[in-house]
Amino acid sequence: MGAFNSYDTLMGTADIEVGVAQFILPPAVMIGFQFKLAKGNPTNLEKASQSWDEAAKAIEQTKTLMQQRLSAISAQDWTADDRPAYEKKVQEFIAQLDVLQIYCQAVSIALIAFAWVLMVYAIFAIGMGTFLAALAAVAAAALAGIITAEITAACEAIAATCLTITIVATGVLAAAAQMAAVVFQGGSMIAAAAEAFKGNDKALSDFMTAQATGSAAALANLGQNAANAGLAFAGSRGPGTKGSPISNVDLDADRNADHTWNVGGGVTAKTPGGYEVTGGGHVKYGDHGFAGGDVSGGVKTPVGLGVNGNVEYTDEDGIGQGDHGSVKYGAGAEYSTPGSVKSGNQEVPIPTAGGKVGIEGEHNFETGQGKVSSSGSATVNGGDVVKGTSGINYDGKGHTSTSGSVDTPGGTKKYGDETPPWDK
């Protein structure tokens, strides 16, 4: 398995340990909240880093090919006066590709570096959680009179120090995220300026257009995050507290490069019978009017069984206008052992184990292309320990290809054709 596949299990275990400790040591409640704030997805960051690295390599290949083709035209074959001007333009373009390649490499490094920062934080979290669980055991023994009762106050003081350390660690993680953002934002600005200096007259204007598009989306997302901040804290309260059946609300307002807005949200609620119900939907609206939308929903039962599904339709040039759109869909089921046991009137978190299966796909109604993939895994504390995937790609012309992999702690075994034959 990949280096980051254990991340979810580590963070899940840390959550359980802190969840147990919070019944004895009040500072552990806020430490658990810090862990929730710090959660990320280093596996996706690793995949994104690889994609940016592949882009940098593709640019290198393009530069080499252009140089080779330019050199292949001998002076005898092309003696006109416009040859020097052509060679100058080619070299200017290659110089612009140099800038773009460096930017792609910088983004790739920034993403994988931040992924490792998240992983280091997960290791810190499991260490902190283990320490707090042990500290809580000492405090509990002191409260029971097994050892000197005064030790309880000392344990709470130590837990408060642990909270301070955790807040600092979370701050370091946030700073690392900001540094990665600087590579994206500042790096793109520097790259645009460098390309303009090397002959690309539209580089700066394109950069400003991108900033205007991104700023509008960022403003909407700030409002979304502000609304969710209080809800996240409310949802972080420990087991046994009373409040609204709605445990989480997630509002979304995003705009992509095609100026299409995706507006909506989702909600999670718990019923009196112990069922957790999720539902959500979005509407897409762009320059050509309504451009689709999506709906999703799921149910988790008190016995640990859950099912979910989603479907999304997108038509960037407007529904009923121009080309046909595309559809994405998915469904899944999972089972996990109970994550807590009753102790008096409180729920005490315990380790979990289970499994997941799922299927997802997409189809383009214009080209007939699409793909269907399925997956299954065994999980411990919310993280995959063994995972298998399979997929089918089709090109709309009768051609198909298959691919798949099996991930275990001992490594990854792939089978099938990762690249469809028609793309080679």
Describe this structure in words.
The chain is an alpha+beta fold and 424 residues long. It has a domain at 1-201. It has helices spanning 7-21, 27-38, 42-72, 82-143, 151-197, 203-235, and strands at 246-255, 261-270, 276-286, 289-300, 305-314, 326-336, 340-343, 346-349, 353-364, 370-380, 383-394, 400-408, 411-416. The radius of gyration is 27 Å and the shape is globular. The model is unreliable at 235-241 (pLDDT under 50).
Using only C-alpha atoms, the radius of gyration works out to 27 Å
Strand content: 25-35%
Strand runs, count: 13
Helical proportion?
40-55%
The ordered string of helix (H) and strand (E) elements is HHHHHHEEEEEEEEEEEEE
Biggest beta-sheet profile: 11 strands, antiparallel
Task: Based on Cα principal axes, name the global outline.
Answer: globular
Classify the secondary structure makeup into a structural class: alpha+beta
* Unreliable sequence segments: 235-241
User: Overall mean pLDDT score?
Assistant: 81
- The strand order across the widest sheet is 1-2-3-4-5-6-9-10-11-12-13
The tally of helices reads: 6
Distance between the termini: 27 Å
SSE layout:
Elements: H1 7-21, H2 27-38, H3 42-72, H4 82-143, H5 151-197, H6 203-235, E1 246-255, E2 261-270, E3 276-286, E4 289-300, E5 305-314, E6 326-336, E7 340-343, E8 346-349, E9 353-364, E10 370-380, E11 383-394, E12 400-408, E13 411-416
Antiparallel strand pairs: 1-2, 2-3, 3-4, 4-5, 5-6, 6-9, 7-8, 9-10, 10-11, 11-12, 12-13
Helix pairs in contact: 1-2, 1-4, 2-5, 3-4, 4-5, 5-6
